[in-house]
Description:
This protein is of the alpha/beta class and 374 residues long. It folds into 3 domains: 3-87, no CATH class; 104-338, Aldolase class I (TIM Barrel); 343-374, no CATH class. The protein has helices spanning 18-24, 30-36, 41-51, 61-64, 77-80, 151-159, 178-189, 203-206, 213-219, 239-250, 269-281, 305-315, and strands at 104-106, 109-113, 116-120, 165-169, 196-200, 225-229, 255-261, 284-291, 326-331, 336-339, 345-349, 352-356, 362-366. The strands form 2 sheets. A 10-stranded mixed β-sheet has the order 1-2-3-4-5-6-7-8-9-10. It has a 3-stranded antiparallel β-sheet with strand order 11-12-13, with no helix packed on it. The longest helix is centred in the last third of the chain and has 13 residues, at 269-281. Mean pLDDT is 94; it is low at 1-11. The structure holds iron/sulfur cluster. The site of iron/sulfur cluster has 9 residues, from loops.
Amino acid sequence: MDERRALPRVDSPEEPEAWRRELRDSVRTVAELAARLELTKEELEGARRAEAGGFPIAITPYYLSLCDPVDPTCPIRRQVVPHVAEGETVPGDLRDPLGEEAHEVAPNLVQRYPDRALLLVTDRCAVYCRFCTRSRMVGAGGGARSEERLAAAFAYLEAHPEIRDVIVSGGDPLTTATEKLVRLLERVRRIPSVETIRLATRVPVVLPQRITDELLTALRPLHPIWVMTHFNHPKELTETARAALRRLADAGFPVMNQTVLLRGVNDDSAVLAELFRGLVRERARPYYLLQADPVRGTGHLRTPLATGIRIAGELQGRLSGIALPKFIVDTPGGMGKVPVGPEWIVAREPGRTRLRTHRGVEVDYVDPPSGRQS
Ligand code: SF4
Protein backbone atom coordinates (compact mmCIF):
# COMPACT_ATOMS: atom_id res chain seq x y z
CA MET A 1 0.00 0.00 0.00
CA ASP A 2 1.24 3.50 -0.84
CA GLU A 3 2.39 5.04 2.47
CA ARG A 4 0.98 8.38 1.32
CA ARG A 5 -2.49 6.89 1.28
CA ALA A 6 -2.28 5.78 4.93
CA LEU A 7 -4.44 8.58 6.27
CA PRO A 8 -4.47 9.40 9.98
CA ARG A 9 -7.29 8.39 12.26
CA VAL A 10 -9.93 11.06 12.71
CA ASP A 11 -10.80 11.27 16.36
CA SER A 12 -14.22 11.67 17.83
CA PRO A 13 -15.11 15.18 19.05
CA GLU A 14 -16.24 13.55 22.29
CA GLU A 15 -12.63 12.70 23.09
CA PRO A 16 -11.63 15.86 24.98
CA GLU A 17 -7.89 15.76 24.33
CA ALA A 18 -8.11 14.84 20.63
CA TRP A 19 -7.64 18.45 19.56
CA ARG A 20 -4.39 18.79 21.47
CA ARG A 21 -3.09 15.66 19.81
CA GLU A 22 -4.10 17.05 16.41
CA LEU A 23 -2.10 20.21 17.09
CA ARG A 24 0.87 18.28 18.42
CA ASP A 25 0.91 15.91 15.43
CA SER A 26 0.40 18.59 12.78
CA VAL A 27 2.55 18.52 9.67
CA ARG A 28 4.99 21.43 9.79
CA THR A 29 8.01 20.45 7.71
CA VAL A 30 8.78 19.68 4.07
CA ALA A 31 9.85 16.16 5.03
CA GLU A 32 6.57 15.45 6.85
CA LEU A 33 4.54 16.91 3.99
CA ALA A 34 6.43 14.94 1.34
CA ALA A 35 5.90 11.76 3.35
CA ARG A 36 2.13 12.23 3.20
CA LEU A 37 1.51 13.78 -0.22
CA GLU A 38 3.05 13.26 -3.63
CA LEU A 39 4.27 16.84 -4.06
CA THR A 40 4.74 18.51 -7.43
CA LYS A 41 7.98 20.34 -8.20
CA GLU A 42 6.17 23.64 -7.57
CA GLU A 43 4.72 22.49 -4.25
CA LEU A 44 8.04 21.09 -3.09
CA GLU A 45 9.86 24.32 -3.87
CA GLY A 46 7.06 26.35 -2.24
CA ALA A 47 7.28 24.18 0.89
CA ARG A 48 11.06 24.53 1.01
CA ARG A 49 10.78 28.31 0.84
CA ALA A 50 8.07 28.31 3.53
CA GLU A 51 10.25 26.20 5.80
CA ALA A 52 13.25 28.43 5.14
CA GLY A 53 11.51 31.43 6.67
CA GLY A 54 8.43 32.15 4.57
CA PHE A 55 4.82 31.90 5.70
CA PRO A 56 4.95 28.73 7.86
CA ILE A 57 3.34 25.37 7.17
CA ALA A 58 0.87 23.77 9.58
CA ILE A 59 -1.77 21.21 8.66
CA THR A 60 -3.65 19.15 11.23
CA PRO A 61 -3.73 15.37 10.57
CA TYR A 62 -7.52 15.69 10.30
CA TYR A 63 -7.40 18.37 7.58
CA LEU A 64 -4.54 16.59 5.82
CA SER A 65 -6.76 13.50 5.66
CA LEU A 66 -9.11 15.52 3.43
CA CYS A 67 -6.31 16.29 0.93
CA ASP A 68 -5.93 14.07 -2.09
CA PRO A 69 -2.43 12.56 -1.69
CA VAL A 70 -1.67 12.49 -5.42
CA ASP A 71 -3.80 15.20 -7.04
CA PRO A 72 -2.36 18.74 -6.76
CA THR A 73 -5.64 20.23 -8.01
CA CYS A 74 -7.46 18.95 -4.90
CA PRO A 75 -9.41 21.96 -3.53
CA ILE A 76 -8.41 21.19 0.07
CA ARG A 77 -4.77 20.72 -0.76
CA ARG A 78 -4.62 24.04 -2.68
CA GLN A 79 -5.67 25.85 0.50
CA VAL A 80 -2.85 24.60 2.71
CA VAL A 81 0.07 23.24 0.66
CA PRO A 82 2.59 25.94 -0.25
CA HIS A 83 3.30 26.68 -3.92
CA VAL A 84 6.29 28.30 -5.52
CA ALA A 85 3.98 31.03 -6.88
CA GLU A 86 3.79 32.41 -3.31
CA GLY A 87 7.12 34.03 -4.12
CA GLU A 88 5.61 36.05 -6.98
CA THR A 89 4.24 39.54 -6.60
CA VAL A 90 1.54 40.59 -9.08
CA PRO A 91 0.11 44.09 -9.69
CA GLY A 92 -2.19 45.12 -6.84
CA ASP A 93 -0.53 42.81 -4.28
CA LEU A 94 -0.19 44.25 -0.80
CA ARG A 95 1.52 43.06 2.36
CA ASP A 96 -1.37 44.31 4.50
CA PRO A 97 -4.33 44.51 2.08
CA LEU A 98 -6.90 45.69 4.62
CA GLY A 99 -4.69 48.44 6.02
CA GLU A 100 -4.88 46.90 9.48
CA GLU A 101 -1.57 48.35 10.60
CA ALA A 102 -2.72 51.84 9.60
CA HIS A 103 -5.95 51.33 11.56
CA GLU A 104 -4.31 49.90 14.69
CA VAL A 105 -5.60 52.05 17.55
CA ALA A 106 -3.75 50.15 20.30
CA PRO A 107 -1.38 47.18 20.11
CA ASN A 108 -3.41 44.20 18.77
CA LEU A 109 -6.58 46.30 18.32
CA VAL A 110 -7.77 47.39 14.86
CA GLN A 111 -10.67 49.76 14.31
CA ARG A 112 -11.95 50.26 10.76
CA TYR A 113 -15.60 51.09 11.56
CA PRO A 114 -17.04 53.32 14.29
CA ASP A 115 -18.99 50.66 16.18
CA ARG A 116 -16.73 47.59 16.05
CA ALA A 117 -13.13 46.59 16.58
CA LEU A 118 -10.88 43.62 15.90
CA LEU A 119 -8.92 42.22 18.83
CA LEU A 120 -5.98 40.03 17.78
CA VAL A 121 -5.42 37.66 20.71
CA THR A 122 -2.90 35.25 19.18
CA ASP A 123 -0.80 34.77 16.07
CA ARG A 124 -1.24 31.01 16.14
CA CYS A 125 -3.56 28.97 13.89
CA ALA A 126 -4.34 25.28 13.61
CA VAL A 127 -3.51 25.44 9.90
CA TYR A 128 -1.81 28.16 7.89
CA CYS A 129 -4.03 28.91 4.90
CA ARG A 130 -1.98 29.94 1.91
CA PHE A 131 -4.42 32.78 1.06
CA CYS A 132 -4.40 34.30 4.56
CA THR A 133 -5.02 38.04 4.69
CA ARG A 134 -2.79 38.29 7.78
CA SER A 135 0.09 36.18 6.48
CA ARG A 136 2.33 39.13 7.37
CA MET A 137 1.89 38.34 11.07
CA VAL A 138 0.23 34.97 11.74
CA GLY A 139 2.56 32.15 12.68
CA ALA A 140 5.26 34.60 13.68
CA GLY A 141 5.74 32.71 16.94
CA GLY A 142 4.39 35.04 19.62
CA GLY A 143 1.47 32.74 20.52
CA ALA A 144 -1.45 33.81 22.68
CA ARG A 145 -1.23 37.41 23.92
CA SER A 146 -1.19 37.86 27.69
CA GLU A 147 -3.69 40.15 29.43
CA GLU A 148 -0.79 42.53 30.12
CA ARG A 149 0.01 42.72 26.41
CA LEU A 150 -3.64 43.48 25.68
CA ALA A 151 -4.04 46.03 28.50
CA ALA A 152 -3.85 49.05 26.17
CA ALA A 153 -6.44 47.45 23.85
CA PHE A 154 -8.84 46.92 26.79
CA ALA A 155 -8.25 50.49 27.95
CA TYR A 156 -9.08 51.77 24.45
CA LEU A 157 -12.33 49.75 24.36
CA GLU A 158 -13.26 51.14 27.78
CA ALA A 159 -12.60 54.69 26.61
CA HIS A 160 -14.68 54.23 23.42
CA PRO A 161 -18.21 53.14 24.37
CA GLU A 162 -19.29 53.57 20.75
CA ILE A 163 -17.61 50.18 20.10
CA ARG A 164 -20.37 47.66 20.73
CA ASP A 165 -19.05 44.66 18.83
CA VAL A 166 -15.62 43.09 19.39
CA ILE A 167 -14.34 40.55 16.90
CA VAL A 168 -11.85 38.31 18.67
CA SER A 169 -9.47 37.00 16.08
CA GLY A 170 -5.78 36.37 15.44
CA GLY A 171 -4.47 33.88 14.36
CA ASP A 172 -7.19 31.60 15.60
CA PRO A 173 -8.46 32.29 19.13
CA LEU A 174 -9.69 28.70 19.53
CA THR A 175 -6.12 27.38 19.43
CA THR A 176 -5.69 29.04 22.83
CA ALA A 177 -6.18 26.96 26.00
CA THR A 178 -9.77 27.21 27.20
CA GLU A 179 -8.93 28.73 30.58
CA LYS A 180 -6.81 31.45 29.04
CA LEU A 181 -9.36 32.22 26.34
CA VAL A 182 -12.15 32.46 28.90
CA ARG A 183 -10.09 34.90 31.00
CA LEU A 184 -9.60 37.13 27.94
CA LEU A 185 -13.25 36.99 26.98
CA GLU A 186 -14.34 37.70 30.57
CA ARG A 187 -12.12 40.78 30.44
CA VAL A 188 -13.91 41.91 27.27
CA ARG A 189 -17.30 41.15 28.85
CA ARG A 190 -16.49 43.43 31.82
CA ILE A 191 -16.54 46.41 29.42
CA PRO A 192 -20.19 47.51 29.77
CA SER A 193 -20.46 49.04 26.27
CA VAL A 194 -19.47 45.81 24.51
CA GLU A 195 -22.72 44.11 23.52
CA THR A 196 -21.58 41.29 21.25
CA ILE A 197 -18.42 39.27 20.97
CA ARG A 198 -17.60 37.48 17.75
CA LEU A 199 -15.09 34.64 17.68
CA ALA A 200 -13.42 34.48 14.27
CA THR A 201 -12.17 30.94 13.86
CA ARG A 202 -11.35 28.31 11.26
CA VAL A 203 -11.27 25.63 13.93
CA PRO A 204 -14.69 24.09 13.04
CA VAL A 205 -13.22 23.48 9.55
CA VAL A 206 -9.67 22.36 10.28
CA LEU A 207 -9.81 21.13 13.88
CA PRO A 208 -13.46 20.33 14.70
CA GLN A 209 -12.33 18.11 17.60
CA ARG A 210 -11.72 21.40 19.46
CA ILE A 211 -15.47 22.01 19.83
CA THR A 212 -15.63 20.03 23.05
CA ASP A 213 -18.21 20.07 25.84
CA GLU A 214 -15.56 21.62 28.05
CA LEU A 215 -15.14 24.55 25.64
CA LEU A 216 -18.86 25.10 25.11
CA THR A 217 -19.62 24.92 28.83
CA ALA A 218 -16.88 27.44 29.54
CA LEU A 219 -18.01 29.90 26.84
CA ARG A 220 -21.77 29.77 27.34
CA PRO A 221 -21.86 32.11 30.36
CA LEU A 222 -20.25 34.77 28.15
CA HIS A 223 -23.11 34.92 25.63
CA PRO A 224 -23.96 36.60 23.32
CA ILE A 225 -21.02 35.14 21.41
CA TRP A 226 -21.29 34.70 17.66
CA VAL A 227 -18.98 32.28 15.89
CA MET A 228 -17.62 33.47 12.54
CA THR A 229 -16.21 30.54 10.69
CA HIS A 230 -14.73 29.90 7.33
CA PHE A 231 -15.73 26.87 5.23
CA ASN A 232 -14.61 27.16 1.61
CA HIS A 233 -15.55 23.83 0.04
CA PRO A 234 -18.24 21.13 0.56
CA LYS A 235 -15.51 18.51 1.12
CA GLU A 236 -14.82 20.32 4.40
CA LEU A 237 -18.33 19.47 5.66
CA THR A 238 -17.33 16.06 7.00
CA GLU A 239 -19.44 14.31 9.61
CA THR A 240 -16.90 15.49 12.25
CA ALA A 241 -17.18 19.13 11.12
CA ARG A 242 -20.96 18.94 10.83
CA ALA A 243 -21.16 17.54 14.36
CA ALA A 244 -19.05 20.49 15.57
CA LEU A 245 -21.47 22.92 13.91
CA ARG A 246 -24.44 21.17 15.50
CA ARG A 247 -22.80 21.32 18.90
CA LEU A 248 -22.21 25.07 18.52
CA ALA A 249 -25.80 25.67 17.44
CA ASP A 250 -27.18 23.48 20.25
CA ALA A 251 -25.13 25.50 22.75
CA GLY A 252 -26.71 28.73 21.48
CA PHE A 253 -23.87 30.11 19.35
CA PRO A 254 -25.13 31.66 16.11
CA VAL A 255 -22.67 30.46 13.45
CA MET A 256 -21.94 32.68 10.46
CA ASN A 257 -19.73 31.51 7.61
CA GLN A 258 -17.42 33.60 5.47
CA THR A 259 -16.25 31.84 2.30
CA VAL A 260 -13.31 33.22 0.34
CA LEU A 261 -13.62 32.82 -3.41
CA LEU A 262 -10.48 30.98 -4.53
CA ARG A 263 -9.28 29.92 -7.95
CA GLY A 264 -9.32 26.14 -8.39
CA VAL A 265 -10.99 25.70 -5.00
CA ASN A 266 -14.53 27.01 -5.20
CA ASP A 267 -14.82 29.32 -8.25
CA ASP A 268 -17.85 27.40 -9.47
CA SER A 269 -21.46 28.19 -8.58
CA ALA A 270 -22.45 24.49 -8.32
CA VAL A 271 -19.68 23.87 -5.76
CA LEU A 272 -20.67 26.93 -3.76
CA ALA A 273 -24.38 26.06 -3.89
CA GLU A 274 -23.58 22.62 -2.43
CA LEU A 275 -21.46 24.23 0.29
CA PHE A 276 -24.05 26.84 1.24
CA ARG A 277 -26.90 24.31 1.34
CA GLY A 278 -24.78 22.01 3.51
CA LEU A 279 -24.03 24.82 5.94
CA VAL A 280 -27.69 25.78 6.27
CA ARG A 281 -28.58 22.17 7.02
CA GLU A 282 -26.29 22.45 10.06
CA ARG A 283 -27.75 25.86 11.07
CA ALA A 284 -24.68 27.80 9.94
CA ARG A 285 -25.60 30.89 7.94
CA PRO A 286 -23.64 31.63 4.74
CA TYR A 287 -22.90 35.27 5.55
CA TYR A 288 -20.30 36.55 3.10
CA LEU A 289 -18.74 35.27 -0.09
CA LEU A 290 -15.55 37.31 -0.11
CA GLN A 291 -13.52 38.34 -3.10
CA ALA A 292 -10.01 37.21 -2.09
CA ASP A 293 -7.95 40.05 -0.65
CA PRO A 294 -4.92 41.01 -2.75
CA VAL A 295 -2.41 39.56 -0.32
CA ARG A 296 1.17 39.46 -1.54
CA GLY A 297 1.95 36.04 -3.04
CA THR A 298 -1.65 34.89 -3.56
CA GLY A 299 -2.19 35.92 -7.20
CA HIS A 300 -2.35 32.24 -8.25
CA LEU A 301 -5.28 31.67 -5.86
CA ARG A 302 -7.32 34.75 -6.74
CA THR A 303 -10.01 35.15 -9.40
CA PRO A 304 -10.89 38.30 -11.39
CA LEU A 305 -13.70 40.27 -9.76
CA ALA A 306 -15.89 39.52 -12.82
CA THR A 307 -15.84 35.81 -11.88
CA GLY A 308 -17.36 36.55 -8.48
CA ILE A 309 -19.99 38.85 -10.00
CA ARG A 310 -20.96 36.12 -12.47
CA ILE A 311 -21.15 33.50 -9.71
CA ALA A 312 -23.22 35.81 -7.48
CA GLY A 313 -25.67 36.20 -10.38
CA GLU A 314 -25.84 32.44 -10.91
CA LEU A 315 -26.56 31.83 -7.23
CA GLN A 316 -29.34 34.42 -7.04
CA GLY A 317 -32.61 32.59 -7.49
CA ARG A 318 -30.92 29.20 -7.24
CA LEU A 319 -30.58 29.41 -3.44
CA SER A 320 -33.07 30.46 -0.80
CA GLY A 321 -32.32 33.69 1.03
CA ILE A 322 -30.96 31.95 4.12
CA ALA A 323 -28.41 30.07 1.98
CA LEU A 324 -27.34 33.05 -0.12
CA PRO A 325 -24.40 35.11 1.19
CA LYS A 326 -23.61 38.66 0.17
CA PHE A 327 -20.74 38.88 -2.31
CA ILE A 328 -18.30 41.37 -0.81
CA VAL A 329 -15.11 43.16 -1.74
CA ASP A 330 -13.16 44.31 1.30
CA THR A 331 -11.55 47.30 -0.35
CA PRO A 332 -7.76 47.55 -0.34
CA GLY A 333 -6.37 49.98 2.19
CA GLY A 334 -9.03 49.20 4.80
CA MET A 335 -11.63 51.56 3.36
CA GLY A 336 -14.46 49.14 4.16
CA LYS A 337 -16.56 46.37 2.66
CA VAL A 338 -18.58 46.91 -0.53
CA PRO A 339 -21.37 44.52 -1.59
CA VAL A 340 -21.12 43.84 -5.32
CA GLY A 341 -23.10 41.80 -7.80
CA PRO A 342 -24.68 41.85 -11.20
CA GLU A 343 -26.76 44.87 -12.14
CA TRP A 344 -30.37 44.10 -11.26
CA ILE A 345 -31.61 47.64 -11.95
CA VAL A 346 -31.96 48.12 -15.71
CA ALA A 347 -33.46 51.64 -15.88
CA ARG A 348 -34.80 54.34 -13.60
CA GLU A 349 -37.21 57.15 -14.23
CA PRO A 350 -39.28 59.21 -11.77
CA GLY A 351 -41.73 56.88 -10.04
CA ARG A 352 -40.68 53.76 -11.95
CA THR A 353 -37.73 51.35 -11.78
CA ARG A 354 -37.10 48.59 -14.30
CA LEU A 355 -35.61 45.47 -12.70
CA ARG A 356 -34.11 42.34 -14.23
CA THR A 357 -34.96 39.15 -12.30
CA HIS A 358 -32.81 36.01 -12.04
CA ARG A 359 -35.03 34.56 -14.82
CA GLY A 360 -33.76 37.29 -17.15
CA VAL A 361 -37.22 38.87 -17.27
CA GLU A 362 -37.52 42.66 -16.97
CA VAL A 363 -40.24 43.95 -14.63
CA ASP A 364 -41.27 47.50 -13.65
CA TYR A 365 -41.75 48.47 -10.03
CA VAL A 366 -44.03 51.52 -9.79
CA ASP A 367 -43.65 53.81 -6.75
CA PRO A 368 -46.71 55.01 -4.83
CA PRO A 369 -47.84 58.56 -5.72
CA SER A 370 -45.51 61.06 -4.00
CA GLY A 371 -46.82 62.76 -0.87
CA ARG A 372 -49.28 59.95 -0.11
CA GLN A 373 -49.57 59.14 3.60
CA SER A 374 -50.07 55.62 4.83
S1 SF4 B 1 -7.02 30.25 10.08
FE1 SF4 B 1 -7.51 32.35 9.47
S2 SF4 B 1 -5.88 33.62 10.36
FE2 SF4 B 1 -5.16 31.48 10.37
S3 SF4 B 1 -4.01 31.21 8.48
FE3 SF4 B 1 -6.12 30.55 8.06
S4 SF4 B 1 -7.13 32.38 7.24
FE4 SF4 B 1 -5.23 33.07 8.29
